[in-house]
Amino acid sequence: MKKASRNQRIAAIHMGKKSLNLDDDTYRDMLEQVTGKRSAKDMTDDDLVKVIQHLDQLGFSKRNFGEKPKVKLSKEALMSKIEAHLAENKLHWNYAKGIAKQMFQKEALEFCTENQLWRIVAALEYKKKRDHETRRVSGQTT
Predict the structure, then answer these.
(1) SS percent in the chain: helix, strand, coil, step 5
(2) Over 60: is that where the pLDDT of 141 sits?
(3) Kind and range of the H or E element at 11?
(4) Higher pLDDT residue, 138 or 68?
């Protein structure tokens, strides 16, 4: 089994926060209680594992986060690109599956062609740009 990356662990922690309906203050208090740090980005890999184990004890299962689909080698680079976008935006694999279903009527990413996977990458990049613009505009209004 492939070792989870730092971004995957942080994304799993944020999924746990959302799944357990923790408000920001409660979430940061829990992080501080478990690791002595109030932000996941400041934690070591060992700290991240401790937080995930603590979230498991509270009832969150990281299995709900989803796993990278197994595809042939020619599609692997595109899947890694999709995975990076999902982790960066703290999105579940089901988000990408939903794009595949909506755009191409495919039930799973494994069934998409390389061209369709490229279009999913483009959709994720567009979402990132749109979210960035929304944050920038909302931050300017007073």
Answers:
(1) 75, 0, 25
(2) no
(3) helix 6-19
(4) 68
